[in-house]
Amino acid sequence: MSKKLKLIWDFFGEDAKPIAEHHVVHLKEFANNNQIPFYESATKAINNNQTIAFITIDEKNMIIVRDALKPHRGEWAETKLK
């Protein structure tokens, strides 16, 4: 079983939620255009002024996504392939 990474982008301010939602559209487009399978791509509200956008991928694809899209941070994740 390969390790999975959750790559995360942070958005702050009153427009954080719609900006994060729009970013997810681009994350999915990038993954599909580059034939990178992903497990999940979504947003999560941290509080009223912070929302994250994230994509969960296999560790072997991390460098491609990291170098092209510059996530703010990442963490190990366990999830099922969709």
Concise summary:
This protein has helices at 16-33, 62-69, and strands at 4-12, 38-47, 50-58, 73-77.
- Compute the average pLDDT: 94
Please report the first level of CATH classification, the CATH class: Alpha Beta
User: Reading side by side through the largest sheet, how are the strands ordered?
Assistant: 2-3-1-4
Query: Which architecture does the CATH hierarchy give at level 2?
Result: 2-Layer Sandwich
Following the backbone from N to C, one meets helices and strands in this order, namely EHEEHE
Task: Estimate the global geometry from the Cα principal axes.
Answer: globular
Q: Helical content, roughly? A: 25-40%
Word description of this protein:
With 82 residues, the chain is of the alpha+beta class. The chain has a single domain (4-77), classed as Alpha-Beta Plaits (2-Layer Sandwich). Helices cover 32% and strands 40% of the residues. The chain has helices spanning 16-33, 62-69, and strands at 4-12, 38-47, 50-58, 73-77. Strands 2-3-1-4 form a four-stranded antiparallel beta sheet, with helices on one face. The chain is globular. The model has no long low-confidence stretch (mean pLDDT 94).
Give a quick set of tags describing it.
2 helices, 4 strands, alpha+beta, Alpha-Beta Plaits, single chain, globular
Question: How does the SSE layout of this entry go?
Answer:
Layout: E1 4-12, H1 16-33, E2 38-47, E3 50-58, H2 62-69, E4 73-77
